[in-house]
Every structure is written in structure tokens, then in C-alpha cells.
């Protein structure tokens, strides 16, 4: 009981969140910041994701298994929090060079819901955890050849712009198994792996769990929470960053940090900025 109380106190001070979207780079109505959980010893019974079932992974969280849609969980009630174990992880690629980060793209005015890692065409891409392939598909104007794998810890990982897929839908894979070859199919200007981590369709910054530059996990456990919601502001004619910050009781530096811009960035009417 004492261990449970300590764990609940830890959860109460976590600040985290997600981005929800139906497709790559779509602009969500709301975005929630996610922060990694510090390395702590968590009782196993508080993490249902540790119960491994590769035939029906994460059945405690997902109501059904479907190969129909990539992200279609609008009718599913999100839990208040889910503890995601990084136990048994594998880095999807040996590359350490991130070419595009998760978050808002000022030039395109939309969100990037994963991270891009530079690779060479033909490089081996590996499964990040044990799991089962849910989607194996081609999208000419989006992900190109891509895979979605559901894992027992509750995550679904997406691997985009592959030159070749080595596994098919409903195949069971293990962490480190080759699942595809890197490439630049679909909407891509050069060879890279587009990597997403999602829970019930909600995108989480992979950098909160995977440290690609150092090829290791960021934390032993990661806590997803749905309570904190982000606030967005649509830029109007005559608006300035300082004025927007004042209206929304925040600071220019905070707005810049949330949107990946600087205080000298020119903002335009109609542009959407995250302010909280």
C-alpha cells in the first residue's frame, strides 16, 4: 500500500501529454505536452502493459484488433494515465542523426507528428519492441511504404518511407527483428526514417522515450496522461508575439519554445500558435 501511495504521488506531479491526428502532419485541434518520467522503481502490478500477449497485444487498452485504419480511435475512451515500460526496447535504426524533430513546423504551418532520422537507402529498420504488425501499406502522398506495430506496453510505432517491407500484417515480431529497409518512398525529399510513437492514435514525441543521438532509452518507464490540454491562438492582423503573450498570460520565450520559433520570427494572420 505504501508503494502504491508513493507511485500516485509521483503521477500527480507529472506534466505530460499527446497530439491526436488522423494522418501524418495533420493539424490537431489540441496538443498536450509530454514529459518523460524519471527513472523510478514501479510495482509491476501497476503496469498492465508488462503482461505479454503477442497474439493480442495491449488488449487491456485497445478494444479490438483491426487492420483497416492507421489511427481511428475516436470512439475509444482514453484512460487518465498509462505506464509504458521501455523494457526490452531496441533502437529502430543505428543512425544517430535526427533531421526533423517532433512538433510545429513554422514554414509549413502544421505539426510534424514524429521524428525523422537520416539513413541510407537499404539500411535495416528494426522493431522497437516485441509486438504484432497491424498495418502494412503504401501511401503515395504520405508515408510511402510504412508499417504500424502494436506492442504489449500500449504503444503503437510507425515506420515510414521504407524502400521495402520485410513483414506483413498480423506477423508477430520481436524487438530488434528486421522489419524493413530504409528509403524515401511517399512524400519525402531524401532517405530517412519517419518514426512515430502513439497510444490510441495520439502521437507522443519519440524523443521522450528514445535517445537516438546516444542510442539508448531515455527512461525505464514513461507515463502517458491525458489531463493537461494545450491552448492554441490564431494570429490576427496586427498581432505581435509580445501582444499574444500578454493576452494569454504567458511569455514570448515560452511561445517560441512551444512552436520552434524565435522572437524575430515573422508571424502571419491565420497562423496557429500554441500558447500553453
Descriptive account of the structure:
The structure is a single chain. This protein is mainly beta. It folds into 2 domains: 16-230, Glucose Permease (Domain IIA) (Distorted Sandwich); 232-274, Roll (Membrane-bound Lytic Murein Transglycosylase D, Chain A). 9% of the residues lie in helices and 29% in strands. The protein has helices spanning 2-12, 241-247, 252-259; strands at 19-20, 81-85, 98-100, 103-105, 110-112, 115-118, 124-126, 131-139, 144-150, 156-162, 164-165, 172-173, 178-181, 192-199, 202-204, 210-211, 216-217, 221-225, 232-234, 272-274. The strands form 6 sheets. Strands 1, 3, 6, 8, 9, 10, 12, 14 and 15 form a 9-stranded antiparallel sheet that branches. Strand 14 (192-199) and strand 15 (202-204) form a beta hairpin. The longest helix has 11 residues, at 2-12. It is globular.
Morphology call: globular
Number of H- or I-type helical stretches: 3
**CATH homologous superfamily placement of the largest domain:** Glucose Permease (Domain IIA)
Q: In sequence order, what are the helices and strands, one letter per element?
A: HEEEEEEEEEEEEEEEEEEEHHE
CATH class of the largest domain: Mainly Beta
Percent of residues in helices: under 10%
Specify Rg, calculated over alpha carbons: 19 Å
The SS-based structural class is mainly beta
Q: What is the count of β-strands? A: 20
SS strand fraction = 25-35%
Provide mean pLDDT, rounded.
81
Amino acid at each position: 500500500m505504501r508503494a502504491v501511495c508513493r507511485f500516485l504521488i509521483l503521477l500527480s506531479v507529472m506534466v505530460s501529454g499527446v497530439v491526436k491526428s488522423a494522418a501524418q502532419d495533420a493539424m490537431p485541434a489540441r496538443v498536450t505536452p509530454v514529459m518523460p518520467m524519471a527513472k523510478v522503481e514501479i510495482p509491476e502490478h501497476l503496469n498492465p502493459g508488462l503482461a505479454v500477449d503477442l497474439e493480442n497485444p495491449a488488449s487491456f487498452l485497445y478494444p479490438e484488433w483491426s487492420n483497416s485504419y492507421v489511427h481511428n480511435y475516436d470512439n475509444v475512451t482514453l484512460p487518465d494515465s498509462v505506464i509504458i515500460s521501455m523494457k526490452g526496447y531496441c533502437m529502430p535504426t543505428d543512425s544517430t542523426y535526427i533531421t526533423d524533430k517532433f512538433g510545429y513546423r513554422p514554414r509549413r504551418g502544421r505539426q510534424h507528428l514524429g521524428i525523422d532520422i537520416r539513413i541510407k537507402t537499404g539500411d535495416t529498420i528494426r522493431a522497437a519492441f516485441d509486438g504484432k504488425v497491424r498495418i502494412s501499406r503504401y501511401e503515395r502522398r504520405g508515408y510511402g511504404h510504412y508499417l504500424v506495430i502494436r506492442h504489449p506496453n500500449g504503444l503503437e510505432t510507425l515506420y515510414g518511407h521504407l524502400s521495402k517491407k520485410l513483414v506483413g500484417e498480423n506477423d508477430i515480431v520481436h524487438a530488434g527483428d528486421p522489419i524493413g529497409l530504409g528509403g524515401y518512398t511517399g512524400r519525402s525529399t531524401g532517405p530517412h526514417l519517419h518514426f512515430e510513437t502513439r497510444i490510441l492514435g495520439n502521437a507522443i514525441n519519440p524523443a521522450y522515450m528514445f535517445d537516438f543521438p546516444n542510442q539508448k532509452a531515455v527512461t525505464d518507464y514513461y507515463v502517458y496522461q491525458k489531463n493537461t490540454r494545450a491552448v492554441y491562438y490564431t494570429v490576427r492582423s496586427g498581432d505581435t508575439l509580445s501582444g499574444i503573450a500578454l493576452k494569454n498570460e504567458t511569455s514570448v520565450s515560452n511561445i517560441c519554445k512551444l512552436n520552434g520559433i524565435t522572437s524575430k520570427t515573422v508571424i502571419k494572420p491565420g497562423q496557429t500558435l500554441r500558447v500553453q
